């Protein structure tokens, strides 16, 4: 049976939040854990839109915090599936922080999340293929295999000798 295909853009999610006092530390900057919570939700909704299934977070790649986000800032999260494998989907997320009174805006975070679509019993279930269309979507799609091998290697789920895509990056002619 041929697998259903869906354009990656159909999974696009945009979420806007205001940084409130409960979200901040004693320096009045947004707490990292609160940011990761928002990122998890936005990325999960993108994976749900692609799969039309319940999804669980399987892994989160490196998340770095470049600059503090002040109380009262507006945070905008943009998430989209980059590639689907069998039951898993990689989601790319960009986060922007904006201080509206001063008119300043900067990109505060970027990350890749992996979600797995599951059935009612929590067992992994196949998802549609994700089809990239724009040059940026193609670039994220191509890199997804390499990133998948790296995260599965680090999770002890892939043997180094099977990480062919990764090895090809370091192959010496
Ligand atoms: C009806 C109402 C709907 C609800 C409407 C409301 C929704 C409103 C939206 C809000 C949404 C919030 C969403 C929060 C989402 C959580 O926070 S969920 C809580 C945190 N996460 C968990 O509890 C997950 C716990 N882990 C597990 O359940 C299992 O390990 C997993 C992830 C299902 C994998 O199960 P497994 O038995 O190891 O399966 P296995 O066949 O070996 O692997 C399956 C796939 O997982 C991949 N995988 C496994 N481990 C990893 C890893 N470490 N890294 C990357 N990929 C991995 C495999 O590569 C494989 O991929 P494919 O080759 O199939 O593409």
TrEMBL record:
It comes from the Bacteria. Coiled coil: none annotated. Residues 9-121 form the HotDog ACOT-type domain. GO terms for molecular function: long-chain fatty acyl-CoA hydrolase activity. SUPFAM superfamilies: Thioesterase/thiol ester dehydrase-isomerase. Transmembrane segments: none annotated. GO terms for biological process: acyl-CoA metabolic process. Keywords: Hydrolase. Signal peptide: none annotated. GO terms for cellular component: cytoplasm. InterPro entries: Cytosol_ACT, HOTDOG_ACOT, HotDog_dom_sf, Thioestr_dom. Belongs to the acyl coenzyme A hydrolase family. This is Acyl-CoA thioesterase.
């Amino acid at each position: 049976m041929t697998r259903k295909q869906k354009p990656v853009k159909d999974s696009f999610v945009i979420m806007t939040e205001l940084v409130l006092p409960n979200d901040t530390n004693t320096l009045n900057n947004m707490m990292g854990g609160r940011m990761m919570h928002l990122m998890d939700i936005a990325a999960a909704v993108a994976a749900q839109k692609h799969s039309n299934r319940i999804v669980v977070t399987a892994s989160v790649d490196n998340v770095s915090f470049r600059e503090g986000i002040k109380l009262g800032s507006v945070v905008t999260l943009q998430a989209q599936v980059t590639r689907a494998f069998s039951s898993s989907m990689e989601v790319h997320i960009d986060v922007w922080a904006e201080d509206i009174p001063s008119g300043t805006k900067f990109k505060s975070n970027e990350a890749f999340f992996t979600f797995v679509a599951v059935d009612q019993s929590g067992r992994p279930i196949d998802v549609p293929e994700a089809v990239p269309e724009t040059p940026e979507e193609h670039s994220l799609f191509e890199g997804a295999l390499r990133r998948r091998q790296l995260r599965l290697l680090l999770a002890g789920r892939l043997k180094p000798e099977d990480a062919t895509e990764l090895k090809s990056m370091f192959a010496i002619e």
